[in-house]
Amino acid sequence: VLRAHILPLTNVAFNKSGSCFITGSYDRTCKLWDTATGEELRSLEGHRNVVYAIAFNNPYGDKIATGSFDKTCKLWSVDTGKCYYTFRGHTAEIVCLSFNLQSTLVATGSMDTTARLWDIQNGEEVVRLTGHSAEIIALSFNTTGDKIITGSFDHTVAVWDVSTG
Known about the structure:
The chain contains no helices and 15 strands. By secondary structure, the protein is mostly beta strands. It is globular. WD repeats lie at residues 2-43, 44-86, 87-128, 129-165.
């Protein structure tokens, strides 16, 4: 058992090989850990509120996305801990996120009832998904990356075309 953060955890995720994992926390950080040794490899700092949603860009595993109650998503380098981009646009907390398998997009779902797709090469918002009447609390890409599903507190699930929204 690791004493990982000074405040409660919100989420955990392995990289594809299982050699390392990440933890998100109310302490506003995401930490990268070596699975075998339990050593903290890196602390990703910069969010101004709870880090709630976290993910590796598996199967590649060279990037981490963090979604926060500060309404932003950050894209980080696993190797250096550098923040590549801060994705801004949501008007409420980000509570879920996911990379597509191709590692070209990261999707964020928010309490503002929208999901947004971000290009991880240039940091730009590609598509905004609007149509839910309540918070989006889950989302997932299909394996080919051309569709995404969103689940909402409005009791519905929606299937979206990634290229057109």
